[in-house]
Amino acid sequence: MVPSEYRLEQVTARLTERLEGTRRSFAGEPERASAAFAKIAEDLLDDVVAEFRADGFTDAPDRHEALLRSEVMDTYLPRYTRLATAMTEREEGGYGMGIL
User: Fold this and answer.
1) What is the per-residue pLDDT across 48-67, written as a single tens digit (0 to 9) for each?
2) For 87-99, what is each residue's pLDDT tens digit?
3) φ and ψ at 93, to 5 degrees?
């Protein structure tokens, strides 16, 4: 069994909070944003995995780590990066409002 704080939805919620805190720092620099987001995600995953391994919170730590890393890095992060980059562009452009 995996406690709730180590479940995928909780890990991605924490990751979203961290990423949203830095998203605007990379306005107009999608390549830098992508690299920075990946680094933040890797760091968070390393911390989460170290925690649940140290405390013995899961019956199959290798399987759970593989699941988290795959889903975060291959599914969640590419989509988040695409949507975050687009949102930052809209914010920078005043959401299409103002003097043209």
Assistant:
1) 999 988 887 677 889 999 99
2) 988 887 766 676 6
3) -90, 10
Contact 93, 36 (CB under 8 A): no
DSSP state letters, 56-77: T--S-HHHHHHHHHHIIIIIIH
Give the torsion sign (CA, 21, 23, 26, 27): negative
d(CA 44, CA 17): 11
Burial class (CB in 10 A: 0-12, 13-18, 19+), 48: buried
Q: DSSP string spanning 6-52? A: GSHHHHHHHHHHHHHHHGGGGTT-HHHHHHHHHHHHHHHHHHHHHHH
